[in-house]
Amino acid sequence: MNKKSKWQIFRHNLGVIYKRHKTRNTLTIVLVLLLIILISLFLIYQNNLKAVSKEDQNVSFTIEQGDTYMSIAPVLKEAGLIKSELFYKIYVKFHDPGELNIGIYTLNTNMSVKEIVDTLSEGSEYGAGTVIFTIPEGWHFEQIVEYTASVTNNSTDEIINAWQNEQFIDELISKYWFITEEVKNSNIRYYLEGYFFPATYYFESKDVNPNEIAYKMLDQMEVILNKYQTEINNSNYTVHQILTMASIIEHEAILDEDRQMIASVFYNRLNSDMPLQSCATLGYATGEWKLTYTYDDMQIDSPYNTYLYNGFPAGPGNMPGEASIEAALKPASSNYYYFMANVCDEEATETYYAETYEEHQANIEKYLTC
User: Fold this and answer.
1) Phi/psi of residue 163, nearest 5 degrees
2) What are phi and psi of 204, to 5 degrees?
3) pLDDT tier at 149 (50, 70, 90 boundaries)?
4) Which of 137, 324, 331, 339 is deepest in the core (most CB within 10 A)?
5) Which residues touch 23 (CB under 8 Å, ≥6 apart)?
6) Other CB atoms within 10 Å distance of the CB of residue 205
7) For residue 44, what pLDDT band results from cuts at 50, 70 and 90?
8) Quick one: pLDDT at residue 27?
9) Which of 341, 308, 303, 340 lies closest to 193, judged by CA?
10) How far apart are CA 142 and CA 116, in angstroms?
11) CA 298, 304, 308, 341: dihedral to nearest 10 degrees?
12) 3-class DSSP state for residue 69?
């Protein structure tokens, strides 16, 4: 073998060694990249299984007939309980929690996907016969009575008799700090008007007693009012008057941001010994809820008619929500004595305020063109 052949052989062997080394390095790089990708995916997966929030916020979640762990994924996402539908479904697929039981569950935004799935798999204390009881903000006592009769095995007469029973009212006065003898004023139409907190409640069956329903709604009102204990203690008004004002605000306000300013208007009138002149109270006096009232309506002799009598009406005229209660306790500071909404335009959402009657009349002429 000549020298040239030996050199060619050497080069060939060197090339083979280089190719093997290069292939090995490439394989190592690919494996490292795959490992990085897998670790990244695992970390993303783990992060998406964590709780949406650290805050403690309960969310009522209903499982109905035909629901599955997979089908409720978008509902959980919309309710703010999971970060990702995809990773939730992957978790469920891997862990196979079994059958999903019908019922109402209390979940929390600080729960991980594992905790949510574990809670759902354990079953609910509220089974298929549970009554879901929802009271919207601004409902009147009579509306609640009729609704209660429609979703439970109680008649309207049974409910009214239970909630208007003086012995029951005395029990409530001794049980709840915010219910006082003021509710027994002879001018009040219904003792508990304005005291039931509007929210969603759950009862085991339609056989629930009316008093149990009342206790639940009053318990929730206590939770809300406890949050404003300092403001209530520092107020110049009683809780009954505060709830009365809140009920007026609830009826009059179009948007949440209007509530505090509207509250300031009514307090300005009270402080100036002016009549409140609220259509909310006039509706309760006449028994009719209209966008506008006539002069004759304003002359109806009723302790709820704030066009005829100065000061607070006899009591609340509806069930106010928390935003209205807060506005009654934390009114804006203003020099306004008048306000109006453009009731001619159903899409209009603006409220117009005025310091003088002349300015108010100008607003009426400008915006009430119907």
Assistant:
1) -80, -15
2) -60, -35
3) very high
4) 324
5) none
6) 12
7) confident
8) 74
9) 303
10) 39
11) -60
12) coil
Q: How far is CA 183 from the centre of its chain?
A: 27
Q: Which two tokens stand for residue 16?
A: 């083979």
CA 29, CA 55: separation in Å to the nearest integer? 43
pLDDT digits (tens, 9 = 90+) for 101-132: 877 888 999 999 999 999 998 877 666 677 88
Report whether 231 contacts 327 (CB < 8 A).
Answer: no
d(CA 78, CA 191): 39
Q: Are 111 and 51 in contact (CB under 8 A)?
A: yes
User: Do residues 238 and 182 lie in contact, with contact meaning Cβ atoms separated by under 8 Å?
Assistant: yes
Pairwise CA distance, residues 197 & 133, whole Å: 12
The candidate with the shortest Cα–Cα distance to 126, out of 65, 73, 63, is 63
pTM value is 0.71
CATH class, domain 58-122, is alpha beta
Backbone angles phi, psi at 139, to 5 degrees: -65, 150
For residues 218 and 156, is the Cβ–Cβ distance under 8 A?
no
Going from the C-alpha of 294 to that of each of 114, 134, 283, 300, the distances in angstroms are 61, 34, 11, 11
pLDDT at res. 6 = 58
Judged by average pLDDT, the poorest of 49-58, 119-128, 162-171, 214-223 is: 119-128
Look at residue 1 and tell me whether its pLDDT is greater than 60.
no
Contact (CB, 8 A) for 356 and 289: no
* Helical H segments across the chain, by residue range: 3-48, 73-78, 85-95, 113-122, 141-151, 156-163, 166-175, 210-226, 229-233, 239-252, 259-271, 279-286, 295-298, 322-329, 357-367
344 pLDDT more than 70: no
Look at 1-10, 124-133, 243-252 and tell me which has the smallest mean pLDDT.
Answer: 1-10
